[in-house]
Every structure is written in C-alpha cells, then in structure tokens.
Amino acid sequence: MSLIFSLALASLPALPEPVANNAVAKVIVQNQTYFLSFMGLGSDKQHSSVHNKVWALKVGDSQWQSKTGVPSSLPLKGRLASTAVGLGEYAYVFGGYTVAEDHTEVSSPDVYKYDVIKDTYTHLASMPVPVDDSVALSYKARYIYLISGWHNDGNVNLVQVYDTQNNTWQQASPFLGEPVFGQAAAISGNTIVICDGVKTQANPDSRRSFAGVAQCLKGTIDSTNPQKIDWRTLPHPTGTAHYRMAASSYNGNIYMMAGSNNPYNYSAIGYDGKPAPASDHVWRFSVDKNEWQVLSPAKVKSMDHRGLLEHKGVLYRVGGIDNNQQVSANVLSYKAEK
Known about the structure:
By secondary structure, this protein is an all-beta fold. The chain is 2% helix and 41% strand.
C-alpha cells in the first residue's frame, strides 16, 4: 500500500453535519466498501434533535451521501441508541428509543435490513423484547446477537439471536454479567467480549439511580449450537467503567476505545449533574492469549458511540461527542497495532 493511499485511507471526510449516538455499519458490495450512519442526535442535544437521518460513504469518495431515513413503526421517527451491524452487502438496524416532548422514552421493536445500492429498507421480524443501548454482533455470516440493553423501564439480561436466513428470533444463554445499557462489545470468531455499561440501583431514600459497572465477560458460542454461550468473567483492563465506548475486532483482537467514565443522559451531562468527560483510552484483548493490553491513547477524545468500524487495519469512530460535550461530525481514525 502506497503511503499516499495509506494516508488517504486513514483520513476520511467528516459527516455532512454533527451527529452522536448514531448506529454505524460497514457493508461491502461488489468489492466496494461503504460506511453507514443511521439516526442519532443533532448538535442541539434536545429531544427535537433526535432524527432518523442516514448517510453513506463510499470509501474513497470525498463526501458522504444523504440517504432515505430509517422508517419507524412508532409515531416518532427519530431514535437514539439504535444498533447496526453490516453483514455482507446489507446493514441490519435494530431498535433504539424515541424521545417525546415530555421526555417519555419508548424502546422500538423495529428491525430493518438496508440495501445501500437500492437505498431501500426491508421490515424484518420485530425483536421479541425491544431493546436500545444494546450491542449487535454477527456470527457465521448468519446470526446476530443482541446482548442485554434497556427495555422501556429497565435493563434485561437477555441474549436475543436473530437468524438472517429464516427471519426468526431465538433466545440464547442469558447474559451472566450485571444487566446494563451503553455497554461495548465485539466478536472474534466465536468469542464475544463485552465490557462495562450502566446499571440501575435501588436506594433507601430516593428513586432508583444509574451507576457505571466496571465488568468484562467473555462468551464462547458453542460450535454446534448458536444458542448456547459459555459466559465467564474476565479481569477488567483498568477497573474504571466507561459508557458508550466504541468497539470492534481485528486480526484476532478485540478493541474498545473512547467513551466516558461518567454516565450521562443524551444532553452529555452526567446523571450526577456534572458534564461528562470524553476519553482517549484504547484497550485491546487478545483472544489467543486471553489477556488485555492498554495501548497508546487516541489523539482525540470522544464518547457517545454505538460502534467502531474497522477497514484495512484502521479503526474509525464516526461522529460522537467531544470532550467539550459538543456533538461532532468528525470521523476519527486509529491504526490498529499488529
């Protein structure tokens, strides 16, 4: 790879406008790679800033293209905390939640398959239990796992498995960690690694509150039964929980980066009333060695991610919120170490 091409690849154009909490996916159609951004939060960070806008970048082009917005079975179209995953030439978009003017939040059951070339959506079987702020991981180019997440009024420990061949759902072995929302996860082969997120907790003299959970678990999917997962605890790389990190896998390693150590609402103000700081940390888990390594930090701090896109050994954060609690249009790159 030439240096010029390598530098061009590492630096991708910014989004047409700032967006955070956007679901992201990478698809490959006729050997051409596309990055996709679905829905999210605009720069005002108000309930009215939640949208269903979609942008696509044909990697190598100089700008993103606006696409048809994500449909919705709910009255409100825009959603936060949806999850997307690319599987071959299609992107699958799951859930998210709507925010009404009175701040009522509703988890969406919707599942759509998106075709970037035709710019069309196919409405698929709804999630049995609608979740948002979850994670979506693909396995064997067929199954997609939604692990834990928030359902209307609380976190669930469910692992819901969507079969893309049959358009059906099944339940897998429940998640054995603390049920959370805003967790980060990635899959390499049949190994899932999932870390952190936010739990709800009861209090003696006040209503429930939210708290970060410093936890990591490894799930090994049974080679003969995709619904069977052997969950085991892992040491945490730092002992400090982070919320809405970006995660992906590459070359037998699982990467987690950015996020915030202070859980927050979509305003980027923490549940404790303090502005949430963005992080620049990068963690790498070696599946073969079963160990963590803390890598050199990213150049730019960011948070409020729904995914991390890998392309040719470079990890990309698409949009998000910066360390000044401002919604960003930037596409930030980090070269994965061999």
